[in-house]
Design goal:
Elements (H helix, E strand, L loop, with lengths): L67 E10 L2 E9 L17 E7 L7 E8 L6 E5 L3 E5 L2 E10 L4 E8 L7 E2 L13 E4 L5 E5 L32 E4 L12 E2 L2 E2 L17 E8 L2 E7 L6 E6 L6 E8 L9 E6 L2 E8 L11 E6 L16
The structure holds beta-L-arabinofuranose (FUB).
């Protein structure tokens, strides 16, 4: 039996009391607390292979510590770096396979003028209370800019508890954002990521299985039943669609983005180390598109490459090994001439899976364009 997002630590909840609205410098440090009694337990009673806090020392500090942040989507707008994260908090909801304990209610945006400079945290940019169709759970967002307007794309369950993707608009990259009265027509599942191609056309990538609900949409409409492919059949793939010129609607139907193995066969559903789970992100380096994503229950960020934005993509390898906490979610962006990996972990909360912190680190490429895997811990 799977245990969705379950990470029970052998020590109690740790509150962020004492944290102030201070910004922190992103510098290499050994910030991980030394905690000896850490284990992660599945409902089955088996131990999962997680990172224990006593085993590793972090290379990077959380970008902010006054709030918990996760799922960082990084973009450079007008020469400044903006990070659009989830805002984790303690909702007191028990952990389950659907991720109910990720009960986030608003978004706060981070920015910085240069790497190593103070990180600004800009307060509430959008609240669940502002969204007329809202049910619950504001999960991983992303943002885009066009013609002086900024668009925040956010996954949120509607009043029927079905994930939809909403769009909110602002004339500032840090909000406040005004939501559209309805979710994006035709939207489903979660983890939106918007990629702007060289011709300024924007594309929306999205999707995630388990609590992300992609397995409920295999017949083109919502079904309350899980519908996963057999282990030896092609995996459920991330979806992508061109955004219409208005940036708030889709130009066409979402299509599957195929991820193939080295022999040209679709990655199989049972290939847990490589199959798509959630957190799709696309970037372009030199002449190739890179589709990176989380493998979910094997806790890795991996990537595939293609010469075509809409694929097929060929699986290449690991970007980031498992981090402290169950989820692994990232973005990749170029800023001031260098490439960076943005990710999260749960070191600040001493391992609580639903209380994460965004970090960043330089990302390097090999001569052939493949990515040098990043090690988050010494
Ligand atoms: O933060 C809630 C969910 O956890 C995200 O949408 C997933 O990608 C995972 O990080």
């Amino acid at each position: 039996m799977h245990t969705r997002y379950l990470s029970i630590l052998a020590f109690g909840a740790v509150m962020l009391s004492g944290c102030t609205e201070q910004a922190h410098k992103n510098e290499t440090t050994t910030d991980t607390p030394s905690v000896s009694e850490v284990s992660t337990i599945q409902a089955s009673g088996q131990q999962e292979k997680h990172i224990g806090l006593d085993e590793y020392k972090s290379k990077s500090l959380p970008l902010v510590t006054n709030i918990y942040t996760a799922d960082p989507s990084a973009h450079v707008f007008d020469g400044k770096l903006y990070i659009y994260p989830s805002h984790d908090y303690e909702a007191g909801i028990p952990q389950n396979d659907n991720g109910d304990h990720f009960a986030m209610r608003d978004y706060h945006i981070l920015s910085m003028d240069e790497v190593g400079a103070e990180v600004a945290e800009h307060g509430v940019a959008l609240s669940v209370d502002d969204v007329p169709w809202a049910g619950r759970q504001m999960w991983a967002p992303d943002a885009a800019s066009k013609d002086g307007q900024y668009y925040l794309y956010f996954p949120l369950k509607d009043k029927q508890d079905i994930f939809r993707i909403g769009v909110a608009i602002s004339d500032s990259p840090v909000g406040p954002f005004k939501p559209q009265p309805e979710p994006m027509a035709g939207s489903f599942s979660m983890d939106p990521a918007v990629f702007e191609d060289d011709d300024q056309q924007h594309y929306l990538f999205f999707g995630g299985i388990w609590g992300g609900q992609l397995q409920h949409w295999t017949k083109g409409e919502y079904s309350s039943q899980d519908d996963y492919p057999a282990d030896d059949a092609p995996a459920l793939m991330p979806k992508a669609v061109k955004l219409a010129a208005d940036m708030v609607s889709m130009d066409g139907e979402p299509q599957d983005i195929m991820i193939l193995d080295e022999s040209g066969q679709p990655i199989k559903q049972g290939d847990l180390d490589r199959r798509f789970f959630e957190a799709a992100w696309v970037h372009k380096y030199q002449d190739n598109y890179y589709l990176s994503y989380s493998t979910g229950d094997t806790h890795k960020i991996v990537y595939a490459m293609s010469e075509n934005l809409m694929g097929p993509y060929i699986y290449k390898g690991v970007v980031l090994d498992p981090v402290v906490g169950w989820t692994n979610h990232h973005s990749i962006a170029q800023f001031q001439g260098k490439w960076y990996l943005f990710y999260h972990d749960s070191t600040l909360s001493k391992g609580q899976t639903h209380l994460r912190s965004v970090k960043m680190a330089e990302l390097k490429y090999n001569q052939d364009g493949t990515i040098v895997p990043y090690q988050a811990y010494y």
